[in-house]
Amino acid sequence: MAKRKELVVVKLGGSVITLKDQNRLEINSGNLERLAKEITEAWKAKGFSLVVVHGAGPFGHVPAKKYELDKGLKGDKQVIGFSETHASMERLNSRVVDALRRKGLDAVAFQPSAGGILRNGKLVKFPVDVLENMLGMGLVPVAYGDVLFDEERGVSILSGDHLVPYLAEKLKAGRVILVADVGGVYNKDPKKNMDAKIMKELSRGNVHEIKEIGSSRGVDVTGGMEKKLEELLRLADVGIESEIISGLEPGLLKRSLLGGKGLGTIIKKKT
Ligand SMILES: Nc1ncnc2c1ncn2[C@@H]1O[C@H](COP(=O)(O)OP(=O)(O)OP(=O)(O)O)[C@@H](O)[C@H]1O
Ligand SMILES: [Mg+2]
Description:
37% helix; four-stranded mixed beta sheet; eight-stranded mixed beta sheet; alpha/beta; binds adenosine-5'-triphosphate; binds magnesium ion; Carbamate kinase
């Protein structure tokens, strides 16, 4: 089997590919098509191995909240919710896979709940060997935030932001890029504060400079930007840098995939 090339892990935020801000269960097909095109163009030009993870937007956050999946398995309600939330995420996933395939990428859906196990919300098992085999063939696995079996709580939500650093570490990614509906991490929520300033680089050394960080306007059960940053700081601790960039600015993801840096917020180890 061909040895795989340098791995890039890309997360397409639910805030970009759905109408999360408006809490509407709809795909932002303009953004999705454009990002799929940018990914494919960069992939064809540079030839890296690629794992795509996408977030949920209302497709996951709304049913997960309705069925209180973040509180664990209490009864039948969560069993119904598991099925419903997963089905909703699969619908979104098939649209992402289709968009990438139509542009010419050999994308393949990768269902996290089929092989992943959580313990208190943290991944303890994931079929990375299957992913390795797919990458070796030149396929592009497309995983997503999902509802998983949890050894302690019965069920828990696996957020795309938890899956990204897990995969980046296990698969030894060279680059980790997350796109969101904002330009990176700011010192205050940029959607609420006109004077918010972007943090070009973040590490455990200057994270205290952030005055306000939270979630989006839409329903969110996985902690929004705050949890995302927490996950990425942990990834930086093991020596893997990541960058959060805007998925709304045309061309930015392509530039980042082609090697551009400093386009949003870089999360790195304290120097
Ligand atoms: N200090 C901050 N800097 C940047 N964004 C912030 C900050 N505080 C809060 N936010 C909010 O975080 C949101 C992005 O997080 P969110 O979880 O909604 O995106 P996502 O991860 O792309 O979506 P999903 O979880 O559905 O995949 C932004 O819309 C922004 O309003
Ligand atoms: Mg999020």
